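quick q for whoever's on today - can somebody do inverse folding on this one?? i tried earlier but teh output was garbage lol. tokens:
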């Protein structure tokens, strides 16, 4: 099992991202959920109220239609006598008059005697003499002044319903029957169309259709109510129920009583169709919330990583500064040690030079006759020369070691470079490296830290010598003023730097030297010091082409405000 290595920065990044996401998304979810719930509740109430209003309005229309037709037939029994209505010509004339006035809503008229036999008939069918004594509509309406039958097929084998009005008393009791056009009646209900699946129909007490059901309706569909949204306030009020169909879909069912409770007007619609606008709004709202949440998550991850990356850089810079301080402390300690050693060496060397001079004086006075006089004189002269050279070296070493002050001062770059080269001369001889200097001694002074510049040049010179120590080579150092800047070039003929490493040589702890021969901080420290002075350091190299470092330091402006120019 592989264990995932997680750094403290990765954990910090995850914690920051989690906090930002939680603080940002939690209010969004709470507020969005509250708005979402309120919107759904309000929209559902609006839909239910609209459907209830539509069904209630159509209920009134159907009831008014039935009442009007019932009243019109009842008016005929009051306006005309039994004798008039049983006259075939008069009854036919009356039917045509009613059809001209109200349209072909009335299909036919018939007068039925007390025994239930049709004694007069006007209409398109041959129904004169028809016996209705056992017909349900006739039996149900005999004890009433008026009655409206259910829709049935009857003798004409087509759906219709009858309005019956009874008149007279006792032996003279008779009935006027009017057949109502089924299509005209069905259109009153079929006009209730909302959405793609909404439709209306009428049922009687036995659940039999009194209007033509839509062709798209599944005749086998069974609805099981599971929630009553709105109960009727009156006996003929509107009831709204949520039902589950046998097809697995949810339906909104709105119903109201007709004809005194004998019929029921039912409106039915698929719930997804009834609330389609709400569902679309919820979908787009959800997409917006998800997009916003995703944006918050992405930004939280991005910002947390960017912030933690910045923390890591700061920590690395602090660590590098700490290491620089350690290196500076080491250099100071080495400088003090070198100063002590140089001082201790300087005293014996001075005594050696003095003793060589004293021996030389004795030889002049008493040893001219010696056969080896010339050889002894040459040896003493060599002792004095080499002793003086040692004294000069220790003097320069003492001077270099004592310059540890990082305060800004006016510095002569050519003189400083010569001093550094003198210190590195012996190391160059051992590595078979020849030194070449091209220094403009007339260039102006630069304002910088002497000790820091010494550290930079000494590091570059030592790196160049170490790069060429295996096969030898040539180290060229030039210094001149160019475009208002002091340009120092340190070039060697060593093996060069691969192109893949050029972008990393100034990174802390990057080194190609063997373990124990380099810390990878030298060039990083040089880069930091030069940039602190307001300058720049660049490198050009390639495999087999040597390396060339360019150091540019700002030159002070002249008295008239213009920068120094070599040609002036």
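ok took a stab at it. sequence:
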């Amino acid at each position: 099992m592989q264990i995932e290595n997680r750094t403290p920065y990765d954990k910090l990044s995850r914690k920051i991202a989690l906090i930002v996401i939680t603080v940002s998304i939690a209010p969004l979810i709470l507020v969005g959920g509250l708005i979402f719930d309120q919107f759904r509740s309000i929209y559902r109430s609006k839909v239910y109220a609209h459907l209830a209003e539509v069904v209630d309005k159509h209920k009134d229309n159907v009831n008014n239609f039935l009442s009007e037709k019932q009243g019109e037939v009842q008016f005929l029994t009051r306006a005309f006598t039994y004798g008039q209505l049983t006259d075939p010509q008069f009854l036919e004339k009356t039917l045509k008059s009613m059809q001209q006035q109200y349209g072909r809503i009335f299909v036919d008229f018939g007068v039925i005697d007390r025994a239930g036999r049709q004694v007069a008939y006007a209409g398109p069918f041959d129904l004169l003499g028809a016996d209705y004594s056992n017909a349900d509509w006739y039996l149900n309406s005999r004890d009433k002044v008026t009655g409206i039958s259910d829709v049935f097929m009857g003798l004409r084998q087509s759906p219709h319903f009858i309005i019956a009005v009874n008149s007279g008393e006792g032996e003279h009791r008779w009935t006027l029957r009017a057949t109502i056009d089924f299509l005209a009646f069905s259109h009153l209900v079929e006009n209730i169309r909302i959405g793609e699946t909404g439709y209306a129909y009428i049922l009687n007490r036995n659940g039999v259709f009194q209007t033509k059901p839509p062709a798209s309706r599944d005749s086998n569909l069974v609805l099981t109510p599971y929630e009553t949204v709105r109960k009727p306030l009156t006996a003929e009020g509107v009831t709204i129920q949520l039902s589950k169909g046998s097809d697995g879909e949810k339906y909104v069912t709105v119903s109201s009583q007709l004809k005194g409770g004998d019929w029921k007007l039912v409106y039915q619609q698929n719930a997804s169709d009834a609330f389609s606008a709400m569902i679309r709004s919820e979908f787009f709202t959800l997409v917006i919330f998800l997009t916003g949440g995703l944006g918050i998550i992405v930004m939280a991850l991005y910002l947390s990583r960017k912030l933690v990356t910045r923390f890591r850089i700061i920590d690395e810079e602090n660590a590098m500064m700490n290491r620089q301080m350690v290196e500076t402390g080491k250099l100071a300690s080495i400088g003090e040690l070198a100063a002590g050693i140089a001082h201790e060496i300087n005293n014996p060397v001075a005594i050696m030079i003095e003793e060589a001079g004293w021996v030389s004086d004795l030889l002049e006075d008493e040893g001219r006759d010696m056969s080896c006089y010339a050889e002894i004189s040459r040896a003493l002269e060599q002792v004095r020369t080499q002793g003086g050279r040692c004294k000069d070296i220790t003097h320069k070493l003492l001077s270099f070691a004592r310059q540890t002050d990082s305060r800004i001062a006016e510095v002569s770059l050519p003189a400083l470079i010569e001093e550094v080269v003198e210190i590195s001369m012996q190391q160059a001889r051992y590595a078979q490296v020849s030194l070449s200097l091209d220094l403009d001694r007339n260039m102006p002074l630069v304002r910088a830290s002497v000790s820091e510049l010494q550290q930079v040049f000494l590091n570059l010179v030592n790196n160049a010598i170490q790069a060429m120590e295996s096969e030898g080579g040539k180290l060229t150092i030039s210094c001149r003023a160019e475009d208002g800047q002091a340009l120092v070039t340190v070039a060697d003929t060593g093996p060069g730097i691969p192109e893949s490493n050029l972008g990393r040589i100034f990174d802390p702890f990057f080194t190609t030297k063997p373990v124990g021969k380099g810390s990878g901080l030298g060039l990083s420290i040089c880069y930091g010091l030069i940039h602190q002075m307001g300058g720049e350091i660049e490198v050009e190299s390639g495999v087999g082409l040597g390396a060339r470092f360019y150091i540019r330091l700002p030159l002070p402006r002249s008295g008239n405000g213009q920068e120094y120019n070599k040609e002036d």
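fwiw Residues 276-366 form the longest helix (91 residues). also Confidence is low (pLDDT under 50) at residues 559-568. so keep that in mind when u check it
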